[in-house]
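User: Okay, second chain of the day. Same drill as before: sequence in, structure tokens out.
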Amino acid sequence: MSSALAIVMFASSFTMTKELNAVPQSNMRMIPPVTVTETINIPWTSQTATATLTYGLAGSPPYQITASINGTSLTNLSLGLVNHQGGTVNVDTFQTHVVDSAGGYEYNIEVKVSGVVGGQWRIMSFTVEAIVI
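Assistant: Same drill. Structure tokens below.
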């Protein structure tokens, strides 16, 4: 018998399968992403708009925010961060300006979200201003 085979057989006798299975598993819990939506009526129009907040995502930022003008091609619009208030509870303000030339409107959209990194987030406020073009 070769010396290498003898060493493998000798070493394997110290670690039994039962002992390998007794190694504790990680206590990490994976929480599935949570999606919160808010739909509002746009003043002076017959349109509605929807803001969508998804949190519980891995990485940074800890959430995603989009907005849509319902009934138009303006869906899943990205919004830019314009203000961040840190602290025990974070408050972030996002805005965007879009034009729907086919519908004849410009829109100023603002969404404020609040929450705690690693915790829950909510839509604090959602406004859309429509301007006839």
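The helical segments are 3-12, 17-21.

User: Thanks, on to the next one.
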